[in-house]
Amino acid sequence: xxxLLGFYIFSAVVxxxxxxxxxxxxxxxxxxxxxxxxxxxxxxxxxxxYAGQISLGHAAFYGLGAYTSAILTAKYGINPWLAMGAxxxxxxxxxxxxxxxxxxxKGHYLAMAxxxxxxxxxxxxxxxxxxxxxxxxxxxxxxxxxxxxPIDTDLRWYVVFAIFMLFCIWLSLNLVDSRAGRxxxxxxxxxxxxxxxxxxxxxxxxxxxxxxxxxxxxxxxxFAHQQSFVSPESFSFFFSIELVTMVVLGGLASxxxxxxxxxxxxxxxxxxxxxxxxxxxxxxxILMVIMIFQPEGLFVAIRNRVTALLSRAxxxxxxxxx
Amino acid sequence: MSEPFLEIKGxxxxxxxxxAIADLSFSVPEGAIYAIIGPNGAGxxxxxxxxxxxxxxxxxxxxxxxxxxxxxxxxxxxxxxxxRTFQNLxxxxxxxxxxxxxxxxxxxxxxxxxxxxLRLPSVLKEERRLRDGALKALEFCGLSGIADRPASSLPYGxxxxxxxxxxxxxxxxxxxxxxxxxxLNDTETMELAGLITQIRDSGVTILLVEHNMGLVxxxxxxxxxxxxxxxxxxxxxxxxxxxxxVIEAYLGGGTD
Lengths: 322, 256
Hints:
The complex is a heterodimer. Chain A is mostly helical. Chain A has helices at 5-20, 25-28, 30-50, 58-75, 80-102, 107-127, 129-132, 154-176, 179-189, 191-195, 201-227, 237-250, 255-272, 279-293, 298-313, and strands spanning 138-139, 144-146, 149-151, 229-230.
């Protein structure tokens, strides 16, 4: 299976790390954040990188999932898995309804609309304090357990997030290499050309929007249980922007590009912490330098260079005849 | 032979006060290569855009096999069996040639996002089928050799053929071609003439908008001449070439 070779290598690394370093802070604590950011970036990339529909509101759906789980389990004592399902179904329904008016918009207008959506959800989480606990957030969210086996240590959470992340990457890799995935890229490339071969572009956009927001919602539910606490600041539009940055940094329309972008953007602040006050400044400078010199994305640029090298090494039979 | 294959009835399109197309009627017989020509600004592109629902006509009707298709969403037109190629290329540059044509096969499959993401066995079967269909369309257009090349690495003339292959992969019965020879050199234009004739012979009706007179007169079965949004003449290439009104419009008499 050459198609998934990269995926298998990546999976092996992700699953071996906790065996080698079960008590390492970067693996079990930062690792959970990384996995989570990877899932969100990969799901956003399906919508943004592949279908070409920018969303500055991805964190809102992540937040809606988290809060649905938090409220249903902490306040009403509902089974966490049911609550997660309810969140996913609710977010799916909301994004389905929103997709009709919103995804008609293009470019800057779509960016504005999704930005507004993110802000509205954030305001709701802050203001509706009787339901959400307001700006202070909500605590007392019960831990998750899988068939009676409690997920109550950092290491166990790492395994749960890692497996869900690998599952989402696998789904994405399958999707982009299929009829449905090519339809996404066709919508991105030329809507009229896509329509003229029978692709219902509005439907394609709706489906991928629902798919990617439902993944975000489930991720949010897991996050709520892992933290046992949620507050609106985790779901602000700044986080949406960060997710967009991850996707762009790694390279649009590349699943592993988003993985790379999310890993780099999650790890960088950890390493820059030694610079104290200058941390944010250096962080910004690094991003700027990368985007100026590798505008197509770090991962994609490196991949293209390696492919070019390999094809040159592969001999003259690959030389273009025209 | 009850109703015409494609029939345009009293079509009109105004932009503000300007009538880009005025009271235009004609019909395209099944199995023909039907060309639309006319000087710049004659309304060819406007007409084309109405045929593919990019513009909505101010009045009039377009009938495909007796059924009104005016204002139908472009993807619905495709599902009825109408395909098109574009004057300014609309090739998907981040895909390979084969993938481009596989997009053309979209209607031959029905597996959605969920099935594809889970890679169900039925998806794999469908992928193989679409791949075979796309390879056939590539072969028909003489592009078998470049199937796995990225579209972005292909020369212009090849991309034009690739777009035709993509349109054919959808299995249209009517193919609208918007200036297929634009930007091609003489050799490529000759190849194109052969390809278009071959497409017609395979049973696809072709509606062609084209500037290259040589090409139009060589391959068309019927020609419609537009001038200022109106029908100036219609007939076989020979009839049209002899028509004094056509000669005047092209060479410019302009005494009135």
